[in-house]
Design brief:
- Two copies of one chain form a homodimer.
- The first copy, chain A, is of the alpha/beta class.
- Chain A has a domain of about 160 residues: Aldolase class I (TIM Barrel).
- In chain A, about 40% of the residues lie in helices and about 15% in strands.
- Chain A is built from nine helices and eight strands.
- In chain A, strands 6-5-4-3-2-1-8-7 form an eight-stranded parallel β-sheet.
- In chain A, helix 5 links the parallel strand 5 and strand 6.
- The longest helix of chain A has 18 residues.
- Chain A is globular, with a radius of gyration of 16 Å.
- Chain A starts with 20 loop residues before the first strand and ends with a helix.
- Chains A and B meet through helix 2, helix 3 and helix 4 of A and helix 2, helix 3 and helix 4 of B.
């Protein structure tokens, strides 16, 4: 499958730096702007990875938007990941698929995707993170770190459990859920590879500026600026 | 991909007789019975093909139920097709995937699935049916033939347009939508390869008997009984 996609080279093992600012799309939060518009601005601001999420969309809509975002991310040199839908990820030649605990099992996805596709797994607990690493996950997402309207089905993970997760695994961790410029430093202090954001960028009046502010914070925190 | 699935031999070109009684699952119509319970009874009654449809389910739920239905259909010698989700179809080693006009494009699905997976396409019009055949569809479904609560977004196709569709293509056509024992003969008279049913079987108090009645009608109409 990976061979059929015409990918020139594998992204595995994944350079953690490519996850440093990981923006997840959300149409409902985007103030009426299209995914293309939001993602273009986020990339201009310094997003390094984009995840396409469209839970109630038709497959055709995911495919259409996915192809557009694949082109934008390729031009920007950013990672492109599709949430949940392995078929869409493969069809649009995404770099990866992100799987939650209620999505396809990791081993099944790897069997179908071949050796090159990145597979990210949502670790709702430290134990799930360790298990996902053992099963070959390329990176981990988290359950919401802070309270957020996007994923409110469970108590937030919090910074202490996030730090334990980061320490328990060798693969990169992208923290997500309620992260914004005001708490980004605390999150980065746990040793995460990247900040995952939805509303802090997607819902911002100035998407590019919001992404640039977070990218600047990451640079500063790492002593790069 | 098809090679990885361990399929012994290709089902293409598809024997139209395998589509003669094509039952589509619907949890909301099943009177609280599980898909496994309904499908087992339908197969006992003479269903020759099962399509798994679970539009709002998680991928994990589709995978779980899909694996169970794959086992049941394999034991019964029946076709097993997954609606919309190519990744689930491949993961559970289904015989085919059924794609509507808002699902993945046929050519993309064929590229990802390899040469052996059956691909059925919903033809909402004669023109779409002809186009799907040209693009390599293995069989066609239809938009609703009669008025039905399941798919009420459009005027029913009716028997005249169904007959034109059947005559316009060489690949087998499964008529679906509002079909039951009371109108099955009229539908069969158009030359369709099979009857597609949802509520007439899935919602029946006695699923096995409902499937057996339809199977008997098909046999009788074809002079086999």
């Amino acid at each position: 499958m990976a061979g059929e996609s015409g990918r020139a080279s594998s992204l595995r093992p994944l350079d953690p730096n490519r996850l440093r600012l990981y923006v997840v799309t959300d149409r409902a939060l985007a103030r009426g702007r299209s995914e293309v518009e939001v993602v273009r601005a986020a990339l201009e601001g310094g997003a390094t990875a984009i995840q396409l999420r469209g839970k109630d969309w038709s497959s055709r809509e995911l495919y259409r938007v996915g192809r557009e975002l694949r082109q934008l991310t390729r031009e920007a040199g950013a990672l492109f990941v599709v949430n949940d839908r392995l078929d869409i990820a493969l069809a649009v030649e995404a770099d990866g698929v992100h799987l939650g605990q209620e999505d396809l099992p990791l081993a099944e996805a790897r069997r179908l995707a071949g050796p090159h596709l990145l597979i990210g797994i949502t670790a709702e607990t430290v134990e799930q993170g360790v298990a996902a690493q053992e099963e070959g996950a390329d990176y981990l997402g988290t359950r919401a770190i802070f309270a957020t309207p996007t994923k409110a089905y469970r108590e937030p993970m919090g910074l202490d459990e996030l730090a334990r997760l980061v320490q328990a695994v060798q693969i990169p961790v992208v923290a997500i859920g309620g992260i914004h410029a005001g708490n980004a430093r605390q999150v980065l202090a746990t040793g995460v590879a990247g900040l995952g954001v939805v509303s802090a960028v997607v819902a911002a009046e100035d998407v590019r500026a919001a992404a640039a502010e977070l990218a600047g914070l990451i640079q500063a925190e790492r002593g790069e600026a």
